[in-house]
Amino acid sequence: MTNEVKHRGLKKVLKTGLKIIFYFIAFAFFYLLIAFLLSSIPVAGEANTKDDIDIYILTNGIHVDIVVPSITDKYNWFEEIEHLTSEVEIPMYKYLAIGWGDKGFYINTPTWSDLKASTAIKACLGLNGSAIHATYYKRMQESETCKKISISEDQYDRLVNYIRNSLEKNSDGKFIEIKSNSFQGNIDAFYEAKGRYSIFNTCNSWANRGLKVSGQRACLWTAFQNGIFSKYKRTEK
Predict the structure, then answer these.
(1) Which residues does 149 contact at the CB level (< 8 Å), separation at least 6?
(2) Which helix (H) or strand (E) is 155 found in, with range?
(3) H helix and E strand count, the chain
(4) Are the C-beta atoms of 152 and 160 separated by less than 8 Å?
(5) Which one, of 73, 231, 28, 68, lies nearest residue 151 by Cα?
(6) What would the pLDDT profile of 180-233 be if each residue is shown by its tens digit?
(7) Domain ranges in the chain?
């Protein structure tokens, strides 16, 4: 092979590589632009509804959970999300935070330092299954990262159905807990969920749909937590 042929081959490889980089940057730019535009379009909450039940939206800066009361007159989450084992402590946990996301990311990435490129790529492409992360809390405190929303009983019914329909069930009709050594503690656990995570169907997209289903302020679509929390900077319903 002559030097001229080698040069041509190398030039072709570099040209192809530059094209791939260009297409990737262009896709990322348009994705972020669309995400910004769609998350800026508000979906109004239902008007003239009762404030029967308090729920919360909770973020760690990246991921939004929907927080519901552990027990109401109609629903008892302890009977369905059963990973708490201490009968003495169970009544102390007043709230349950629910988040949906990529199963591989949840199970294989207990901390950010454990994140692998293969896990992130599979999550973005929707190659993994999904899971629900359920965490019990003793109390909720409103802040910039935790917002209270008062909703009616009917709206809460719809929210509960949305969450339940996001979970997989076994032949006995029970939610399926995922056993793993990567969990954070005994107050939280992971459960098999429906759907597949992707850059178009993120954990925050799931939370945003839950708010829309239950008649609350939301955005048309969002991939990021800012799209949701920007609708709750004010305190009015």
Answers:
(1) 54, 55, 56, 57, 216, 232, 237
(2) helix 153-164
(3) 6, 9
(4) no
(5) 68
(6) 765 556 789 999 999 999 999 999 999 999 999 999 999 999 999 999 999 998
(7) 1-39, 44-232
